[in-house]
Amino acid sequence: MTATLEPTTTKGAPASTFDSLNPANGDLVGTYPIAGKADVDAAVARAREAAGWWGALSFDERAEYLLTWRSVITRRIAQLADISHRETGKPHGDAQLEIVLAIDHITWAAKHAKKVLGARKVKAGLLMANQAASVEYNPLGVVGVIGPWNYPVFTPVGSIAYALAAGNTVVFKPSEYTPGVGQWLADTFTEVVHGRPVLQVVTGLGATGNALCTADVDKLAFTGSGPTGKKVMAACAENLTPVIIEAGGKDSLIVDEDADLTKAAEAALWGGMSNAGQTCIGTERVYVHERVFDSFMTEILDQAKGLRAGADAGAKIGPITMPSQLKIIQSHIDDAIAKGANVALGGSDAVGERFVQPTILTHVPENSTEITEETFGPTLAINPVKSMAEAVELTNATSYGLAGAVFSKKQGMEIARQIRSGMTSVNAVIAFAGVPTLPFGGVGQSGFGRIHGPDGLKEFTYAKAITRQKFRPVMMHTSFTRDAKTDSRVAQLITVLHGGKQTLK
Ligand code: NAD
Questions:
Q1: Predicted TM-score of the model (pTM)
Q2: What is the 3-state secondary structure (H, E, C) of 45-65?
Q3: For residue 476, what pLDDT is reported?
């Protein structure tokens, strides 16, 4: 961690700062204030006031601001990608790719909020035929967003864009490793809304995040590790603040005997190694049908030739952004080897001071940490399986349940449905993340709640049900004037409606 000072607690005391460093070389990228509790509360109070204006706009008016922001990001994509590149170390092309996906999500959220959340009539049913019924989804008010560093644009924007489109204002606490990216997003949005504090950033470490959890926010959207997610939930429980938890994973990619092995290997390599393996929905385990295991290994090792981590233009893999992760990656590789795994590429020496070279292990014991815990490094554990049933069983034998992939010509959909996870791609890897209409999120230790798509919009609202009486009912059953005759008619009616044996047609 690069922070140089502890957060300030006294009102009015000079703000402490922390440094954001380039993980590829240790260069200083920027120095940012550590927002204390008073600063966070003040930001939330400003957001609350701005929510009055923003929430009262029509869906179309909000969409226009959001689409303008989308255009600004698009025009200045190189600028934002460069900050992300310097703060995370990821190659420029990768930094650009996640911004491209984020732009698409902002556009979708802006264009669909009205249809998904706007007032709509619903059927009142026979018992309540005298009522006109409608439902609409109202903004909660102020949403706190806490983000990670690994996809510092795509990940928080998945909450921010949907929360804004739904009519909320947002206070965003970016990771301490990527404060510059967070500040850039808030600054450009503020420009678009002529200085109004609709999207603000508070920078700092964990304590600043904690202050946001206990501030006067109406919902907290957290993306990060499971252990921090538990702290976030505990802090939010103080005020009964609802939370979304988007946590880690241990996703697998399954390769069936009829799969296109070239494409499956390409996907496994990308899913496991891109962004130096620091992807929540990245591939960490691969289960390959034993009949094609050797061919798959030949293919993936062939494709991995020349793939390396480094800071030069030819390197396709960047550094490990968070230095403390290096020890975890090392320990997972060493544990797997100590328990009997074979090294097909890289290995124990692959872990350097800033970079980890691609590592592929095979026949990795299922009780090693390389299989049971999130590694978050450019490593793949590839194991043969006797059947797809075994592949599914091993895939599901984890407390996580975020995403995954299946490569199969005939049984892709069938296998995908058996995987206990929030998202699965068939014959591709992490494809769902780029489809704005699809919900994004996990089960189990991977968290709960959904961003993206209609579910993601509704996540930042509360449902408001309204009935309007059209005429007085023939049988007035919600009145003290109700008599035995009415009770008897009600009993007759319910018997006619629901007493018979019915089949679903
Ligand atoms: P992290 O849990 O260390 O930090 C996440 C954020 O929480 C940071 O902004 C941090 O400052 C803040 N934080 C730390 N302590 C806090 C506290 N006590 N209260 C409130 N906030 C606090 O995670 P990270 O290292 O930034 O990100 C990597 C993790 O995120 C991985 O596990 C990865 O799988 C996960 N992730 C999940 C998704 C998803 O959508 N499911 C997406 C990206 C990353």
A1: 0.95
A2: HHHHHHHHHHHHCCHHHHHHH
A3: 85
Q: Is 433:456 a contact under the CB 8 Å cutoff?
A: no
Whether the pLDDT of residue 1 is over 50: the answer is no
Gap between the Cα atoms of 148 and 151, Å rounded: 7
Is 359 in contact with 340 (CB distance < 8 Å)? Answer: no
Output the pLDDT for position 14: 46
**How many whole angstroms separate alpha carbon 36 and alpha carbon 205?**
10
Task: Specify whether 338 is located in the same domain as 209.
Answer: no
Give the catalytic positions in this structure. 246, 280
What integer best gives the mean pLDDT of the chain?
95
Does 503 or 287 have the greater pLDDT score?
A: 287
Q: Are residues 94 and 235 in the same domain?
A: yes
Please report how many Cα atoms fall inside a 13 Å half-sphere around the Cα of residue 52, on the Cβ side: 4
In a domain, 86, yes or no: yes
Residue 229 Cα to ligand 1 midpoint, Å, equals: 7
Q: What percent of the chain has pLDDT over 90?
A: 93
Residue 256 lies in a domain: yes
Do 345 and 236 share a structural domain?
A: no
Residues within 6 Å of ligand 1 by CB: 146-151, 155, 173, 175-176, 205-206, 209-210, 213, 223-225, 228, 231-232, 235, 246-249, 280, 322, 374, 402, 442, 447
Distance CA 62, CA 55 (A): 9
Give the residue numbers spanning the domain of 142.
29-246+453-462
Q: What is the residue with the minimal CA distance to atom 8 of ligand 1? A: 175
Alpha-helix residue ranges (DSSP H) falling in 304-405 = 325-338, 369-372, 388-396
How far apart are the C-alpha atoms of 468 and 50, rounded to whole Å? 31
Domain count, the chain: 2
Name the residue of 20, 178, 223 to mutate for ligand 1: max ligand atoms within 8 A of Cβ: 223
Share of the chain above pLDDT 70, in %: 97
